[in-house]
Design a protein that fits this description.
The protein has 200 residues and is mainly α. The protein contains five helices and six strands.
Amino acid sequence: MEERRYIEIPGSQTHELPPLLVRSAPERGPLDEIVDKAAGIVEAEDMISGVGVDGHTMEQRKLDLAIQLAEQYFRLVSHWTWGDSILEWIRQCEITFESRELLRNLLHPDLWPHASRCSFVTLLEEKAVPTHGVHLENAVGLRLTFRQPPPIDCFSNQYLFYLNGSISTTAYEKWANLSPDSTALLPPERFHFDVLDLEQ
């Protein structure tokens, strides 16, 4: 395990950060409509071989696969929503840092070491924010990849089943590595914030 380097903040007080407002997933459309679109992906990509299978069994397999694709899509939208909420929270935290003299210089790249934007994601992880199965780095990577969650019929079955996680991870790592090696982490014991789950 790599050794983590933390920024030294003068004093001993705990700094209050803006709350992380986690919005509910945007309206996805009726479930049967999403499953119908997923069934279109199953048909278009010829995902199931019909050799030696009767018609009823074949239709059931297609429906089962369409439901699995729809579930993967809902998971993707949930991750995207978390990523969108986190990036907005980071912007709010940057404003907070700029407004406080003691924190103002911690994000400036001309200081060594300094915190980067990805330090806030690590802060969320170290504070053990309950994510209900959402992987924070993948969530941010997905939001960095898509400005809005695309409709399900924009995705291939390969993306929904296999590629989503690795592409999101790559996007996050590229974003995190935009900062020079002189970056350090924010000490979790020096910051407090609330996490509020907002329903749209």
